[in-house]
Inverse folding.
């Protein structure tokens, strides 16, 4: 493997890890529900999400942290409160990447196209 192939392989591995991490963050029904709620708002605080879901505040906070760490949701501090909003650009990129991956797998070309899902 030459340097260019090695760099391409490392980039493809990084892309796969990023997609897997973001999909992992979505792999819980409560986080999907939170994301759906946030997508209908400009931004809201944890209390607003707690009022929508039948979950404890600490549980919602942990789920929000997972979504923020996956860079699917942005958090901004406003005094003692934190406001959360969907990162629409990140979601669009993930949607594009997953769609491309699934289409390539269905067509049998995924291995040939590895790394091109960026």
């Amino acid at each position: 493997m030459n340097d260019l192939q090695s760099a391409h392989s490392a980039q493809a591995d990084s892309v796969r890890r990023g997609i897997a991490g973001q999909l992992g963050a979505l792999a819980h029904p409560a986080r999907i529900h939170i994301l759906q709620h946030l997508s209908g708002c400009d931004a809201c605080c944890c209390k607003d999400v707690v009022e929508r879901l039948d979950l404890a505040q600490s549980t919602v906070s942990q789920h929000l942290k997972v979504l923020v760490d996956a860079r699917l949701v942005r958090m901004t501090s406003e005094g003692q409160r934190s406001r959360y909003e969907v990162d629409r650009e990140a979601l669009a990129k993930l949607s594009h990447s997953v769609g491309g991956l699934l289409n390539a797998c269905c067509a049998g070309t995924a291995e040939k196209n590895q790394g091109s899902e960026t």
